[in-house]
Amino acid sequence: MFWQVQGNMQISPIDEILESGSFSLETLLLEENVIQEVKSMNDDLINFLSQPDVVMHMVSYVIDPLAMSSLLLEASRHRREIERQEARELQRSAEAAEMEEEEEVA
């Protein structure tokens, strides 16, 4: 898999989505590492993407520019939300570190 680190296998975000059981094609397509996972021959992902209804859905994105625009807009919103979440987490970490410093000084 793409996410191998020092001999230990870590579950990829794609695998987490696939294991959840309730997801859409769009959810997978919005993941930034979906191409790498396909290239690394992620069996579960390839099996899902090979289903006839999923293939037809992907073809519809190719032939219908409006559908693709909608997906790209959703991807942009998704990325902005992730960035906001990461910024909030960084701020919380900084606040926690600041509180620890204040406790050490006191």
Descriptive terms for the model:
106 residues, mainly alpha, two-stranded antiparallel sheet, 6 helices, 4% strand
What's the gist of this structure?
With 106 residues, this protein is mostly helical. It has 6 helices and 2 strands; from the N terminus they run ββαααααα.
Could you please describe the fold and organization of this structure?
This protein has 106 residues and is mainly α. It has 6 helices and 2 strands, in the order E-E-H-H-H-H-H-H. Strands 1-2 form a two-stranded antiparallel sheet. A hairpin with a 2-residue loop joins strand 1 (4-5) and strand 2 (8-9). The protein is elongated, with a radius of gyration of 19 Å. The mean pLDDT is 83.
Count helical runs. 6
Strand content: under 5%
Based on helices, strands and strand pairing, what is the structural class? mainly alpha
Share in helix: over 70%
- In total, the number of strands is 2
Q: How are the strands of the largest sheet arranged?
A: 1-2
Mean pLDDT over all positions: 83
Give the oligomer, counting copies of the same chain as homo and different chains as hetero: single chain
Biggest beta-sheet profile = 2 strands, antiparallel
Distance between the termini: 48 Å
Radius of gyration (Å): 19 Å
State the order of secondary-structure elements, H for helix, E for strand. Answer: EEHHHHHH
- What low-confidence regions span 5 or more consecutive residues with pLDDT below 50? none
The global form is elongated
